[in-house]
Amino acid sequence: MKILMLQPKVTEDKSENLAKVEKLLEDEKTTDVDFLVLPEMFNCPYEAEKFDDYAEEIPGPTTDLLSRLASDHDLYIVGGSIPERSGGDVYNSSPVLDPTGKIIGKHRKIHLFQVNYPGKIQFDESKYLKGGNEQTVLETKFGAIGVAICYDLRFPELLRGMAKAGSRVIFLPAAFNTTTGPAHWKPVLRTRAIDNQTFVVAGSPARNRESSYKAYGHSLVVDPWGEVLIEAGAGEEKLTVELDLDKIDEVRKRLPLLDSLKPEVYST
Amino acid sequence: MKILMLQPKVTEDKSENLAKVEKLLEDEKTTDVDFLVLPEMFNCPYEAEKFDDYAEEIPGPTTDLLSRLASDHDLYIVGGSIPERSGGDVYNSSPVLDPTGKIIGKHRKIHLFQVNYPGKIQFDESKYLKGGNEQTVLETKFGAIGVAICYDLRFPELLRGMAKAGSRVIFLPAAFNTTTGPAHWKPVLRTRAIDNQTFVVAGSPARNRESSYKAYGHSLVVDPWGEVLIEAGAGEEKLTVELDLDKIDEVRKRLPLLDSLKPEVYST
């Protein structure tokens, strides 16, 4: 299963952000690519007070483009996330498209990001967004995949549920920052892969000095044994990586963690 | 809260293993030490087929010694673990003693270690031991503490339960090996601390070239932000570390993770 990830420098110009995705697929040899993966808020700046200005419905202009690209290039797209308008609310939502261009599902970010670290970073999505209330596991021709967004990854309960529901690859479009990124990004992503014995594919926007939110970058792909297969730097990058899905069963045979759960003991 | 940890080279001679603990406390200035922490199977080799030979009851000779040491030195002891005989069964159990010498609780390892990595390591505790069936959270004068043993740490459900039950420090007597240790030990321990915003204190025996099981060593203490406060090497070592318990509330205010749980969404 071959993955192409884009770690784009996102600007205030939505059409420029979308054109960057289109151009990537024109420039790359995509015949053997199975999944294109985009990061959280790939079509607009990660600034909570602006999400409403950029919000659109799903389906809408952004997913129309992704649909065309998925079908033109015959690949799945995990469409990072966009601000989704639905009724009077805005969600942080990740649309997933199959190679026919069909939207096969979307994940609405469940856990909204709240951080209050004086002198470092303050951010509160919950003032501007509504949270989703469903775990997202979707069937693909490579087996089931899980999708969650950024802060969702801090809750092992959610990812465990995805693994138990059969996810073999968990996609995590994200946008950690230069405070939480260096402290938490890599050990937490590796541990989710180690605990659940799945692949973890986590994308981030590139750092943009001009934006108020300093994304960490460091898009990361981890195998089911916890090994880092590829890690980006902070700047704009594209990454390709091949996932050997047989590795999942190999690791699960080695350490039968998911067969050793004792739900009758856990107090959660 | 000051912690003294011993990473002992464990031999086949139980009295020698116990004398090592006694001597440590004689040699150290223990007046300001609050907790002595020992590793998994500190009184016998970590060899599953021998656990029955070394097994004793709790209370029994080993906890009698720990009781005397706790009271003589006025400190808590997280007594690593020992093979505990109870009825016809043997458990992998961690006794905890208070500064009066009283056994205030014990944790029986819940998840028994099974690994089958051909050419690297094969081990199956479940053939020789019975598993416990209770989460262990104990009150101390420093607040609640959680205790789990080695393979238990691979199950985030268990540690989350301990944190929700108020644990501020989670003790993990363990004995990872030279295969799983380098691959998993540090990221998993750091992530448990990051997710639950508690201190994590994980002890290991030293590596002993003469024993069939090659312990990883690397006893580790992590703060609630995921920073490693101290890490041992592979050999015999004693470590001291001071835990600033105010850090817990500081980190929980910074990122209110435990207030953001959505149990209604999790499928586990």
What's the CATH architecture of chain A?
4-Layer Sandwich
Oligomer: homodimer
Shape of chain A: globular
CATH classification, class level of chain A = Alpha Beta
Protein structure class of chain A: alpha/beta
The percentage helix of chain A is 10-25%
Q: What number of domains of chain A?
A: 1
- Radius of gyration of chain A, whole Å: 17 Å
N-to-C order of helices and strands of chain A: EHEHHEEEEEEEEHEHEEEEH
Q: Which whole number gives the mean pLDDT of chain A?
A: 97
Main sheet summary of chain A: 7 strands, mixed
Strand residues, percent of chain A: 25-35%
Please tally the β strands of chain A and state the result.
15
Our measurement of the CA-to-CA distance between the termini of chain A, rounded to an integer number of angstroms, reads: 35 Å
The CATH topology of chain A turns out to be Nitrilase/N-carbamoyl-D-aminoacid amidohydrolase
In DSSP terms (H or I, runs of 4 or more residues), the helix count of chain A works out at: 6
- CATH evolutionary superfamily of chain A: Carbon-nitrogen hydrolase
